[in-house]
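FIELD: query
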Amino acid sequence: MYIRSTEIQGEPADIDSGLSLVREEIFPTVSAMDGCVGMSMLVDRQSGRCITTTAWSSEEAMQESAAAVRPLRDRAERALGSTSGRYVHEWEVAVVHRDHATPEGACARLTWLSGGDLHMVDNAIDMFRMVVVPQIQELDGFCSASLMVDRETGRVVGTAAFDSREALEASREAATGIRERVIAELGATVDNVEEMEIAFAHLHVPEMA
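FIELD: result
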């Protein structure tokens, strides 16, 4: 399974109009493409930052969709009021564990890591499966966890979703402890930690624990 993520810095006031465009026009179009297995959109309503992801059954399907989705990204960028461009990245889906579907009001914490030695990505996958998931799934309000990796650049991003903003905030201390142990073991660098609202979630990626 593969994911294409698009990061857009939009205007907070334009979040809802961009979200409507994704729901009503972009998602139906993308989901009809060969190999597409869903789409999601995370937003930070204070900063205007948005991350949309499309999931694909194979790397080939993802690559073949590139030309068709480009004008859709252009429309989303305009609807979100972005004037600073976008950042598009492609990832391999390494781990997915789902307790239950995300309800309305769900939020997610994203942790971006890089660096470490040549084996960091493989080690990160093992640690996410054996250390992170077993601990984080015990936290109140846990919905799901996933890990995406880029083996060429040595980057990974882990996502943990919770039922509500309150559950996400209550998990911060525990998540910090888990993160510190993981990065010490991996020798990796934390590039960023973000907490975002899951505004749209129609990903149908199977369990990959």
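FIELD: remark
The longest strand covers residues 188-203.
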